[in-house]
Amino acid sequence: MRIKLVALNCRYTHSCAALFYVRQELAARLGGAGIVLRQYALNDPYHPTLLRIAEGQPEAIFFSVYLWNDEYVRRLTHDLRKLLPGVPVVLGGPQITYGGHGEDFPENCTLVRGEVEGLPPAFYHDLQAGCLGREYAADPAAEFRSPYRDEDFAGELRSRQVYYESTRGCPFACGYCLSAATRGVRTRGLPEVKEELAAILRHQPKTLRFVDRTFNAHPGRTLDLWRFLAAQGGETACHFEIAPELFTEEMLDFLATLPPDRFQFEVGLQSTHPATLAAVSRSMDLARVRANLARLAALDTIHLHLDLILGLPLETPETFRRSVNEALALAPHHIQMGLLKLLPGTPLTAAAGEYGLVARERPPYEVLATGTMTAEALARLYWIGECIESFWNSRFFRAVLAYLRRTEPDPFGFFEELTGVCRRHGFFE
Prior knowledge:
Blueprint: E1 2-9, H1 17-29, E2 34-41, H2 46-54, E3 60-64, H3 70-83, E4 89-92, H4 94-99, E5 109-113, H5 121-129, E6 135-137, E7 162-164, E8 167-170, E9 184-187, H6 190-201, E10 207-210, H7 219-231, E11 237-242, H8 249-255, E12 263-270, H9 274-279, H10 286-299, E13 303-310, H11 317-329, E14 334-339, H12 347-350, H13 352-355, E15 358-359, E16 367-369, H14 375-391, H15 398-407, H16 411-424
Parallel strand pairs: 1-2, 1-3, 3-4, 4-5, 5-6, 7-10, 10-11, 11-12, 12-13, 13-14
Antiparallel strand pairs: 8-9, 15-16
Helix pairs in contact: 6-7, 14-16
């Protein structure tokens, strides 16, 4: 059986770990199947991408569907039905598991909800028999292993970021996150994880991104893995999503010994407004967060990417201004002011009416207004975020920005004025 697995990534340098997991399960369940992986980018021309997916007479085509490629995949499924009317198209991923929208796909599409490792035998039987049903539900408690083979690193992973997970799930249940839909964390054994990481690092990928939702949730385990990764040498940058309040003194002491650019931290600050944090079930010791991030920033050897979410419940322009000023004062290398996304299946989406949250109808479901922030105010803050992206995150103005941090009590006000200048001159156009 000829099966084509397809990903539409945001950028060429990204990769889609889900394809490799799907390949692993198909190879184990369907002996002798010819499985081909193909990764494209969203900015690739549409028609050539459609033709490349259809070529080779595939007998089934699989897509992994996310917020960023939902519309693109939806368009492809309708055109593939015309090009390959008898070929089943299998759709999985978070947009399918939580997003619904089954009625938007043609009748030859099969929707897989949940993790591929937990699919029932009936799915593979029906796939081989050519009689796939409309939907299949997977067991969320299935075990998982690294999905990569050595040859992948010279093939589909060449010059791309490599994604890896040592755990699944999250210890927190933030109202805006899909992790709140499935509680609990599945943690894999350290010997197995280290063996897999050593195999990956032998190929020296440029970036190894851990997709564990809160990598530093278990201090002893985290420190063990960090020490292991540091001992491997090489120039691979390891990227982690971390909770800033969970650092221990021992962790911070170890991080101070690292050479520059080996570790990258993505820090979910989101807001410093206590009422907002409570509304989204995010509990943080803000004093501890500030102290830990200040220590990490002072090292200047670990790339710090700090996330704020614009449009959270009970956030006003004034409280968000304070959050931005606190973020700027911490001197991270990158500040992301992303709009809140009302993801299907999250508690916050269910409570949208309570907080007056109004969002776009289609993916990525970005918020347009809230009960405490008008559409005009939200739009103004959005453009200030774009200004920070252009001037702070580009790192072209480090001396000027360092001067502002030392002398300006309200750096947000500086960027607010700069945004006005930029808009008058058509900078964002």
